[in-house]
Every structure is written in structure tokens, then in C-alpha cells.
């Protein structure tokens, strides 16, 4: 009974992460996207902490702490600051309308489930449910990266994708290196995004809209 | 026999509490906005006043206009009677299920919209068309929620679902969480609350429900308002019954059980009404063009709830 | 006591040396002022790494939980360290010219050298990692270092290229991580919780008992994920930009080494999947992606106007051929794939050495503006001609040998597949040769104002020596492969199944 409860709660937190993923697709304003992302990271931190408690794996608390401090607090604040400071257009620019994005999102969730179900037919419901949720979060992150044309939303989409990966990793019982993996991701995002791109793009274009970048198509004949 | 008694009690109860619930929401909202606000029992006074007044009817109005308030009120009231509130032991419980509930609410909505168009004013038509747009999105979402619940519980009867949930065989299901979220969104849309509609506005660009009933006065308006209030209470009761049935008296429970059930129901209404007031205060009204996104979201949540049932072991 | 024991163990384990030298150097170079010293130190450190990698042939350490060496990766470690070493020599020449032209500040150069060593470290770590998680972290770190280096010039194009690279490859490695997690989930019921279920040496012995469906799903994610890094079509979009806009030494190591490392990761997982009899055959998927890469790049080669981009597409083509070979499987095809990996690595980095000097001399990357190389710079020009002919697949060079082997084994195994393969190879051949003609022969253009090469005799020699060294190895390999090398390639080919 207690075990059942711990599974259920884990899945509920996972579903919250997934819902936040849909929430990000639903938003039209950049700040709302950032806030939703912060909420997703918070839910991820809760999921990691809960897994740390259930699996009796203290190192997962470190993953939870990274998710909480870096993703739920530092990154959203820094992106807020950047958006304000650089005067980026505050509306999310969509390549596909929000309604359609949501429909595609649900289709992706169904796809994730269809992929996972036969694979885990013999596995416990635990794996089945967490795996399908994690894969859905990953696919939604990819969808966001594809359908939102702006450097900030692309980064947020990538981090949402990464949230799904971390969710999968913490749900896999006893998986080693989870902390290292989440650190590696954080360093990648931090270094690339903040160390280089925002400042350089600012320097060069006065805009973070990647649309301007696309005028350059590589080959100059 | 007791079932008949409790059924009658419930019929009276929903009608009696509905104005109080609405009044309470208005009062809390006023407080959160920094106003003093009318006391929670103000709606009772309003009813008394409206019933005293003469009903003025437009020259162009047909019998539909006159009949609509009564039909709407009757259908919503009947719907409110079949949702278990404090006990599952009510006479009409076996006769009606969630799909019937959706249909009853649709009848009420249909007649209101018809009446809105009947007078032939611009506002009535505008309100009716918007109402129908909302309904066309909200109803499938509501049915989706119904499907996922009935897949979990194996029945579409609210009373049976309560028995199932209280039976303890169901843990914290992801599907139920999703269905709850979808249900809340549908409830907001069906009751014309912010962010879909603002019940307090008479601004032509934004109103939906108010636009349809602009021509009513006197006892007709009282009926329409009563229907609106009962509908709000009904949705709160439905959410409480499906997702948090704890405290509800089962068949065979004596008077103490019934009293506990009533206390629990009052507490649930209190929490939901306060939460609604808070939510309406912090959120801004949505543009009409975004309704489809919002309700589409509810529909998709309902769909996800159904999909996830196949992942967990509930099915 | 335990510290000394650990140090003794460390001293005895050459793998640790191979990793510690570049890592320490990266830290040191990050704080070392003055780029002149840094370029030489970079060469010296890369040389030391190469020498210690040779020790592995003599003394192979026991596998630990995290690091291991077997027949397959020892050869890639040596190749990586070797190309890393020769590229560092070229880089010294390249950087001194760039610095004279004031393209890069001291700060950037310090960063460049530190990142170069960090990049070598991550690739070597990915190769020797015995843990699929560590391998993933290493490849992710390799992405990070190269993204930073691609954006080094801070031009509009460089930033777009780096951004595209970051976005695409991050998604790629993200999916690879999901695949890695799935492999762990497949292994966990058999191997139990913890690090055992991620160790290669243990996984490969027990893989037959894993859940086959989970492994299939995992392989799809890994193929798409690491396939992005290999540059397989249709996930190749980052590759031409990243090669074209970064510093040329980085283009050389990207093409010559990083693609190999990503492919190595993929092959390891292929071995794992093939051990399980109930899984899907990974071959057809790889053949499909290989062929599509080959065709796509074959056609794209014709329309290129930028010299670095041209050879970036050629890298996609060759990665396609190699993936095709491994997808085909069997002793001959695997042998051919391994040999092609080596030959491509040597030839392509040699081409980029030449291209680096050529673009510096000409002051442009436009193919149309580069003419008459054999007349204006004979040593460089002829080296370039040989290298391009080699990569195009002309006999008697090593690339021809390996391509020939791929084609013959395709004919013997799947004759229908051999036809598109040959057509694709001919397409690429035609494109490269037609481009080469204009660049290598004819009258040289008048001196360009933007050119910033020339002069320094030592610099030019340092740039051309690695080029000729690589090309002589490729030619020798085409004419005569030493018997021990053949035996060893065969052993690895058998390992790959």
C-alpha cells in the first residue's frame, strides 16, 4: 500500500512536469513561458527529491538541488534579465499556431505511449508510466524547439527536453551518474547560452530573433 | 424510502444554498479587490426584489422568450438534483448518469441561446453565437472527462463513481489528476467565469452570458439568475463528488452520517468558492480568439487522461 | 598509504596518463599568458599524449569499472592522439599567421588552446570509457568545447553556425542520453542496480538476456542521437556550418576525430544489440542512413562555393560510406569500415591543413577565387591535389582500397545495394575532381589585399609537414598494409560481428 502510494505520487509529479510542458506550448508571452518553465523545473526538483526519498538514494537530492537552484531559480531569473535588458520582443513567435501545436503535442504523447507500451509489456507499471511520461516530456521539448522561433524559447525548449531526460534518469532505479549528467547539462547550457551567445548575438545583431540569422544560408556563391 | 426523503432534502438544499455560494464568491472577490462588498446573502434580497417587479417583454419576443427562463431553470435544477451532494442515497441517483447531466445542461444552454436570438437585438445574437462556440468546445471536453472517469470506475453514474472512489481501490491516478484539471477548465467555461466570461461585466465587447439575457427583467430575470447560481453550485458539487467524495454518507448511514456528509459538503463548497474568487481575482480575462485554445486545452487534457489510463494499470 | 598505492596504480595505468596529460594541459593553458609559448606547449603536450597512447599497445591494463581498453578502442585512441598531435603542429603555424593578421586576440588564443586540449581529453575519455554514462558525458563535453571553438571568430556566420551546432547536437545528445537510460533499464533486471548495469565489459557478456524490445527502442534513440553527431543525413545540418566557420584546425579535428568518436559510440551499441538474438537487426537502419547521407552529400557537393563547406559535405559522404559498411556487417565490410575510418580521418585532416593555409594565403574561402595552387605554391598545391584525389577515391590511395572493399562486399552480400553505393561514390568523385581542377591548375590570381600568409618559411613548413606525413601514410596504406595491422583489423572486424 505504501509502495503503491510512493509510485502514485511519483507519477503524479511526473504528470505535473508533463502538464507544465503543455503549459509552455500554450503560452503566448515570453515571460509566461519562463515562469512555466520555472514551475516545470520545480516539479522536476520535487520528483527527484521524492525519488531520492523512495529509492533511499541520497545523491538524487543533489540532482533535485541542481534542478531547484539552477533551473527553477537561476536560469529563469537570468533569462528574465536578458529579455528585459536586451529588449527582446515579448511575444512568442510561433511557426505553428498554438492550437495546432497542442494537438501535435497530444499526438506525440500518444506516440510515446504507443512506443513504450509494447516495450514494457512485461515490465512493472512503474517503469511503463514513468518512461512514457519522460518520453512525452522529451518530445514536447523537441516540439517547442521546432515550433518557436526565438533563441530564448529554443533554449527553454531544450531545457524542457532535458527535464524529461533527467526525469527518466531519476525514475530508473539505481541508475548511476545521474548527478554528473545533470551537472553536465547545466554546464552546457550555462556556458553556451550565457557565456557566449547572448552577449555575442547582442553584439552583432541587437536581437535574439533567430529569424535574422536565417538570412544567412551558408553558401555565398 | 429514505432515498426519497434525502432526495427531497437535496432538491431544497441546492436551491437554498446556491445564492449563498454566489454571494460568497462575490463577497470574497470584493474583499480581495479592496472593496467592502455586498454581504453574502445579498442574492436572496435580489431575488425578492426581482420577484416583486413587473416582467417587461419586448414586442418582438415570441413564446420562446417567455418559456426559456423556466425551461433553463428546470433543466439545471434537475441536473443539480441528480448529483450526489451529501449522500449517495438519493432517489434519482440510479436514473441519471454523467452523460445525461451533460445533456440536461445542454438543454438549458440551448434555450438561453434561443431566447437571446429571439428578441432580435444585436447583443442577444452576439451572446448566443459566442455561447454556442464555447459550448461546442466545452461539451466534448466534458464528455472526454466523463469517458476517462467511466473507464476508471466502470460506470457513468456519479453515485457509483463515489462508491468506487471511496472503496479505496484507486490510488492517486495520473488520469484522475488530468481529468480534474480538464474538469476545472470546463467548469470555468460553463459557468461563464473569468477568464472566459466575466459575470460582472456589461461591456459589449466582452460579455457572453450577460449579452444573451440583457432583455430579461422581473421574474424572468430571477429565473435566469437562479439557474446561473444553481449551475455554479452544481459544478462545485460535481467536482467535489467525483474527485473528493470523502465524507459523503453511504446508503445505510444514519442521521449522524448524513450530518457529517452535509458538513463535509458545506466545507467543500466553502473551499471551492473561495478558491474560485481568488482565481478570478488574480487572472485576467481572455480575448475571445483565445477561447478555442483554452477549451481545446481542456479537451486535450481530457484526451490525455483517457490515453494515460492505458499506461497505468487502471484498465 | 592508500594515496601512494593509488598513485602507483595510476602511474602503472597508461589510460590515466592519456587522460591526465590533456586535462592538466587544458587547465594550465587556460591561465598561461602569451600565445607563442602556448602553441609550442600545445604541440608538446599533444605529442606526449600520442606517445603515451603508444604504450597501450605494449601494456594493456585490466578493465576497471570506468575505463577499459580493448582491440577496438586502442586503435582509435592511437589514431585520435596521432591526428591530435599533427593537428597541433598545423595549429601552431595557423595560429601564428592568424595572430599576425590580428584576427584573434590573446584572450581568445588562450581560450583556444585550453579548449583544444579539453576537446582532446573529452574524445579520449569517450573512447576509453567503460561506462556508457561516462561515455555520454564525455561526448556531451566534446560538444560543449567545440561549440565554443566554432564561435571563436565572433562573426555573424560563426555565431549562426555555433548556434545551429549547439541546438542540433544538444538535441542529438539528449536523445542519446534517453537511449542510454533505456539500455540501463534493459540491463537492470539482469545486472541489478548500480554501475554494473552500465559497464561495457559486463553488459556485452549478459546482453543476450536483456529485454529485446527495450534494446530496440534504445537503439533507435541512440542511432538518431549519436547519428546527429556523426553527421548522418537527415541530421547533418549543423556539420557544414560548424566546419566552415570555426578555425581550420578545429575543422580538421571535427572531421577527422569527433565524427569517428560519435560513430564509435554508435558501433559499441550496435555490438550490444547484435549480441541479443531477439532484437531487430540494426544493419538496415544504418545502411539506409548511410546511403541517404552519401546521396545527399554527393549532390550537395556540386553546388558548393565555399571550400571548407565543400569538404564538410565530403565528410558527410564518407561517414555515410562508413556507416553503410558497418551496417552491412560481416568480416570484409567491417574491415573496410575500420580502414575507411582511419583513411578518412588522415586524409580529411590533411585536406583541412592544406585548406587552412590556402584560405589564409588567398584571404578568401570562395572556391571561385582560388586558382592555380600548383603554380603559386607547389609543395602545398601538389599535396592538396593528392589529398583531394585520395578523398575522391582514386587509386592507389588507402581511401580507394577501403571503398573498393566496401563495394565488393556489398556486391557479394546485397547486389542491389551496391548499385546506389557506386552511383553515390561516382557522384562525389565527379564533384570533387571538377572542383579540384579549377583550384589547383590554371594561372594563379593576382595577390590579394586580404591575404595574410606567406613570408615565414618555418610556418609554411610546419603547415605542410603534417599534410605530407598524413598523405604518405595514406598512400602507403593503399599500396601495402603491414601484416600485423591487417591481422589486427581483422580481429576488430570479428569483434564487431
Automatic annotation (TrEMBL), chain A:
<feature type="transmembrane region" description="Helical">
    <location>
        <begin position="123"/>
        <end position="144"/>
    </location>
</feature>
<feature type="transmembrane region" description="Helical">
    <location>
        <begin position="177"/>
        <end position="199"/>
    </location>
</feature>
<keyword id="KW-0812">Transmembrane</keyword>
<keyword id="KW-1003">Cell membrane</keyword>
<feature type="transmembrane region" description="Helical">
    <location>
        <begin position="33"/>
        <end position="53"/>
    </location>
</feature>
<dbReference type="GO" id="GO:0005886">
    <property type="term" value="C:plasma membrane"/>
</dbReference>
<feature type="transmembrane region" description="Helical">
    <location>
        <begin position="95"/>
        <end position="117"/>
    </location>
</feature>
<feature type="transmembrane region" description="Helical">
    <location>
        <begin position="151"/>
        <end position="171"/>
    </location>
</feature>
<dbReference type="InterPro" id="IPR038730">
    <property type="entry name" value="HyfE-like"/>
</dbReference>
<keyword id="KW-0472">Membrane</keyword>
<feature type="transmembrane region" description="Helical">
    <location>
        <begin position="6"/>
        <end position="26"/>
    </location>
</feature>
<feature type="transmembrane region" description="Helical">
    <location>
        <begin position="59"/>
        <end position="83"/>
    </location>
</feature>
<keyword id="KW-1133">Transmembrane helix</keyword>
<protein>
    <submittedName>
        <fullName>Hydrogenase-4 component E</fullName>
    </submittedName>
</protein>
TrEMBL record, chain B:
<keyword id="KW-0812">Transmembrane</keyword>
<dbReference type="InterPro" id="IPR001694">
    <property type="entry name" value="NADH_UbQ_OxRdtase_su1/FPO"/>
</dbReference>
<feature type="transmembrane region" description="Helical">
    <location>
        <begin position="98"/>
        <end position="120"/>
    </location>
</feature>
<keyword id="KW-1133">Transmembrane helix</keyword>
<feature type="transmembrane region" description="Helical">
    <location>
        <begin position="229"/>
        <end position="249"/>
    </location>
</feature>
<feature type="transmembrane region" description="Helical">
    <location>
        <begin position="159"/>
        <end position="188"/>
    </location>
</feature>
<protein>
    <submittedName>
        <fullName>Formate hydrogenlyase</fullName>
    </submittedName>
</protein>
<dbReference type="InterPro" id="IPR052561">
    <property type="entry name" value="ComplexI_Subunit1"/>
</dbReference>
<feature type="transmembrane region" description="Helical">
    <location>
        <begin position="291"/>
        <end position="311"/>
    </location>
</feature>
<dbReference type="GO" id="GO:0016829">
    <property type="term" value="F:lyase activity"/>
</dbReference>
<keyword id="KW-0456">Lyase</keyword>
<feature type="transmembrane region" description="Helical">
    <location>
        <begin position="132"/>
        <end position="153"/>
    </location>
</feature>
<feature type="transmembrane region" description="Helical">
    <location>
        <begin position="6"/>
        <end position="27"/>
    </location>
</feature>
<feature type="transmembrane region" description="Helical">
    <location>
        <begin position="255"/>
        <end position="279"/>
    </location>
</feature>
<keyword id="KW-0472">Membrane</keyword>
UniProtKB/TrEMBL annotation, chain C:
<feature type="transmembrane region" description="Helical">
    <location>
        <begin position="338"/>
        <end position="358"/>
    </location>
</feature>
<feature type="transmembrane region" description="Helical">
    <location>
        <begin position="379"/>
        <end position="397"/>
    </location>
</feature>
<dbReference type="InterPro" id="IPR001750">
    <property type="entry name" value="ND/Mrp_TM"/>
</dbReference>
<feature type="transmembrane region" description="Helical">
    <location>
        <begin position="310"/>
        <end position="332"/>
    </location>
</feature>
<keyword id="KW-1133">Transmembrane helix</keyword>
<feature type="transmembrane region" description="Helical">
    <location>
        <begin position="457"/>
        <end position="481"/>
    </location>
</feature>
<feature type="transmembrane region" description="Helical">
    <location>
        <begin position="134"/>
        <end position="153"/>
    </location>
</feature>
<dbReference type="Pfam" id="PF00361">
    <property type="entry name" value="Proton_antipo_M"/>
</dbReference>
<feature type="transmembrane region" description="Helical">
    <location>
        <begin position="72"/>
        <end position="95"/>
    </location>
</feature>
<feature type="domain" description="NADH:quinone oxidoreductase/Mrp antiporter transmembrane">
    <location>
        <begin position="129"/>
        <end position="423"/>
    </location>
</feature>
<feature type="transmembrane region" description="Helical">
    <location>
        <begin position="15"/>
        <end position="32"/>
    </location>
</feature>
<feature type="transmembrane region" description="Helical">
    <location>
        <begin position="217"/>
        <end position="239"/>
    </location>
</feature>
<dbReference type="InterPro" id="IPR003918">
    <property type="entry name" value="NADH_UbQ_OxRdtase"/>
</dbReference>
<feature type="transmembrane region" description="Helical">
    <location>
        <begin position="251"/>
        <end position="273"/>
    </location>
</feature>
<dbReference type="GO" id="GO:0005886">
    <property type="term" value="C:plasma membrane"/>
</dbReference>
Amino acid at each position: 500500500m505504501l509502495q503503491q502510494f510512493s509510485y502514485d505520487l511519483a507519477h503524479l509529479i511526473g504528470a505535473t512536469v508533463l502538464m507544465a510542458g503543455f503549459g509552455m506550448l500554450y503560452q503566448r508571452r515570453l515571460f509566461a513561458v519562463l515562469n512555466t518553465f520555472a514551475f516545470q523545473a520545480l516539479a522536476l526538483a520535487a520528483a527527484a527529491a521524492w525519488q531520492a526519498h523512495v529509492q533511499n538514494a541520497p545523491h538524487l537530492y543533489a540532482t533535485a538541488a541542481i534542478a531547484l537552484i539552477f533551473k527553477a531559480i537561476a536560469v529563469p531569473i537570468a533569462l528574465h534579465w536578458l529579455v528585459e535588458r536586451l529588449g527582446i520582443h515579448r511575444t512568442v513567435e510561433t511557426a505553428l499556431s498554438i492550437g495546432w501545436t497542442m494537438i501535435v503535442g497530444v499526438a506525440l504523447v500518444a506516440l510515446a505511449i504507443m512506443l513504450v507500451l509494447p516495450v514494457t509489456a512485461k515490465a512493472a507499471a512503474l517503469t511503463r508510466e514513468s518512461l512514457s511520461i519522460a518520453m512525452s516530456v522529451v518530445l514536447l521539448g523537441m516540439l517547442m524547439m521546432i515550433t518557436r522561433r526565438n533563441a530564448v524559447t529554443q533554449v527553454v525548449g531544450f531545457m524542457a527536453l532535458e527535464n524529461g531526460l533527467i526525469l527518466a534518469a531519476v525514475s530508473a532505479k539505481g541508475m548511476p551518474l545521474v548527478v554528473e549528467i545533470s551537472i553536465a547539462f547545466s554546464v552546457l547550457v550555462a556556458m553556451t547560452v550565457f557565456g557566449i551567445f547572448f552577449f555575442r548575438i547582442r553584439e552583432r545583431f541587437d536581437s535574439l530573433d533567430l529569424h535574422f540569422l536565417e538570412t544567412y544560408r551558408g553558401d555565398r556563391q | 424510502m429514505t432515498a426519497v426523503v434525502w432526495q427531497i432534502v437535496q432538491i431544497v438544499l441546492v436551491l437554498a444554498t446556491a445564492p449563498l455560494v454566489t454571494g460568497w464568491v462575490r463577497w470574497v472577490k470584493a474583499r480581495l479587490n479592496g472593496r467592502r462588498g455586498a454581504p453574502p446573502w445579498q442574492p436572496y434580497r435580489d431575488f425578492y426584489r426581482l420577484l416583486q417587479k413587473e416582467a417587461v417583454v419586448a414586442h418582438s419576443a415570441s413564446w420562446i422568450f417567455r418559456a426559456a427562463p423556466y425551461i433553463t431553470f428546470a433543466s439545471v435544477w434537475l441536473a443539480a438534483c441528480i448529483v450526489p451532494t451529501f449522500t449517495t442515497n438519493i432517489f434519482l441517483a440510479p436514473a441519471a448518469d454523467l452523460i445525461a447531466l451533460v445533456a440536461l445542461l445542454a438543454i438549458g444552454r440551448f434555450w438561453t441561446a434561443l431566447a437571446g436570438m429571439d428578441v432580435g437585438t444585436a447583443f442577444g445574437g452576439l451572446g448566443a453565437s459566442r455561447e454556442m462556440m464555447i459550448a461546442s468546445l466545452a461539451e466534448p471536453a466534458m464528455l472526454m472527462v466523463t469517458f476517462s472517469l467511466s473507464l476508471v470506475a466502470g460506470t457513468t453514474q456519479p453515485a457509483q463513481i463515489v462508491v468506487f472512489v471511496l472503496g479505496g481501490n484507486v490510488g492517486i491516478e495520473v488520469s484522475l489528476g488530468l481529468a480534474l484539471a480538464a474538469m476545472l477548465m470546463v467548469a470555468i467555461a460553463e459557468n461563464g467565469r473569468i477568464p472566459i466570461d466575466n459575470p460582472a461585466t456589461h461591456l459589449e465587447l466582452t460579455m457572453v452570458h450577460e449579452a444573451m439575457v440583457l432583455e430579461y427583467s422581473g421574474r424572468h430575470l430571477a429565473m435566469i439568475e437562479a439557474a446561473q447560481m444553481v449551475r455554479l453550485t452544481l459544478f462545485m458539487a460535481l467536482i467535489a463528488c467525483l474527485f473528493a467524495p470523502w465524507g459523503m454518507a453511504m446508503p445505510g448511514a444514519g442521521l449522524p452520517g448524513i450530518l457529517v456528509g452535509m458538513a463535509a459538503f458545506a466545507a467543500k463548497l466553502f473551499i471551492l468558492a473561495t478558491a474560485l474568487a481568488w482565481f478570478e481575482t488574480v487572472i485576467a480575462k481572455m480575448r475571445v480568439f483565445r477561447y478555442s485554445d483554452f477549451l481545446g486545452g481542456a479537451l486535450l487534457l481530457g484526451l490525455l487522461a483517457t490515453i494515460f489510463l492505458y499506461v497505468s494499470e487502471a484498465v | 598509504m592508500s594515496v601512494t598505492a593509488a598513485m602507483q596504480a595510476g602511474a602503472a595505468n597508461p589510460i590515466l596518463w592519456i587522460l591526465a596529460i590533456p586535462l592538466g594541459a587544458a587547465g594550465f593553458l587556460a591561465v598561461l599568458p602569451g600565445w607563442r609559448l602556448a602553441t609550442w606547449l600545445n604541440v608538446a603536450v599533444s605529442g606526449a599524449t600520442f606517445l603515451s597512447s603508444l604504450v597501450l599497445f605494449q601494456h594493456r591494463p585490466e578493465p576497471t569499472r570506468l575505463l577499459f581498453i580493448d582491440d577496438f578502442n586502442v586503435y582509435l585512441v592511437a589514431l585520435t592522439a596521432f591526428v591530435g598531435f599533427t593537428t597541433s603542429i598545423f595549429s601552431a603555424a595557423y595560429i601564428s599567421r592568424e595572430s599576425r593578421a590580428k584576427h584573434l586576440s590573446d584572450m581568445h588564443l588562450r581560450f583556444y588552446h585550453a579548449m583544444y586540449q579539453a576537446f582532446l581529453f573529452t574524445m579520449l575519455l569517450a573512447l576509453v570509457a567503460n561506462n556508457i554514462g561516462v561515455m555520454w558525458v564525455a561526448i556531451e563535453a566534446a560538444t560543449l568545447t567545440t561549440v565554443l571553438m566554432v564561435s571563436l571568430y565572433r562573426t555573424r556566420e560563426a555565431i549562426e553556425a555555433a548556434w545551429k551546432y549547439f541546438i542540433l547536437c544538444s538535441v542529438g545528445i539528449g536523445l542519446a542520453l534517453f537511449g542510454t537510460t533505456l539500455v540501463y533499464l534493459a540491463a537492470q533486471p539482469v545486472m541489478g542496480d548500480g554501475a554494473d548495469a552500465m559497464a561495457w565489459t559486463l553488459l556485452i557478456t549478459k546482453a543476450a538476456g536483456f529485454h529485446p524490445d527495450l534494446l530496440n527502442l534504445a537503439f533507435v534513440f541512440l542511432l538518431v542521437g549519436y547519428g546527429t553527431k556523426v553527421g548522418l543525413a537527415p541530421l547533418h545540418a549543423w556539420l557544414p556550418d560548424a566546419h566552415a566557420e570555426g578555425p581550420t584546425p578545429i575543422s580538421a579535428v571535427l572531421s577527422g576525430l569527433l565524427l569517428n568518436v560519435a560513430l564509435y559510440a554508435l558501433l559499441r551499441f550496435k555490438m550490444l544489440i547484435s549480441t541479443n538474438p531477439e532484437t531487430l537487426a540494426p544493419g538496415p537502419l544504418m545502411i539506409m542512413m548511410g546511403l541517404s547521407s552519401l546521396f545527399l552529400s554527393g549532390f550537395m557537393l556540386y553546388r558548393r562555393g565555399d571550400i571548407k563547406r565543400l569538404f564538410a559535405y565530403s565528410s558527410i559522404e564518407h561517414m555515410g560510406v562508413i556507416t553503410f559498411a558497418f551496417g552491412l556487417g560481416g568480416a570484409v565490410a567491417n574491415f573496410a569500415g575500420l580502414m575507411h575510418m582511419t583513411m578518412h580521418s588522415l586524409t580529411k585532416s590533411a585536406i583541412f591543413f592544406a585548406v587552412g593555409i590556402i584560405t589564409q594565403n588567398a584571404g578568401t574561402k570562395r572556391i571561385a577565387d582560388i586558382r592555380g595552387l600548383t603554380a603559386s605554391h607547389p609543395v602545398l598545391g601538389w599535396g592538396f591535389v593528392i589529398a583531394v584525389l585520395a578523398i575522391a577515391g582514386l587509386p592507389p590511395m588507402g581511401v580507394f582500397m577501403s571503398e573498393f572493399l566496401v563495394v565488393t562486399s556489398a556486391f557479394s552480400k546485397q547486389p542491389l545495394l551496391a548499385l546506389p553505393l557506386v552511383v553515390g561514390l561516382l557522384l562525389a568523385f565527379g564533384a570533387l575532381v571538377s572542383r579540384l581542377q579549377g583550384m589547383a591548375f590554371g594561372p594563379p590570381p593576382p595577390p590579394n589585399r586580404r591575404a595574410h600568409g606567406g613570408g615565414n618559411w618555418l610556418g609554411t613548413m610546419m603547415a605542410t609537414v603534417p599534410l605530407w606525413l598524413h598523405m604518405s601514410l595514406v598512400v602507403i596504406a593503399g599500396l601495402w598494409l603491414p601484416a600485423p595491422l591487417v591481422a589486427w583489423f581483422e580481429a576488430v572486424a570479428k569483434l564487431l560481428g
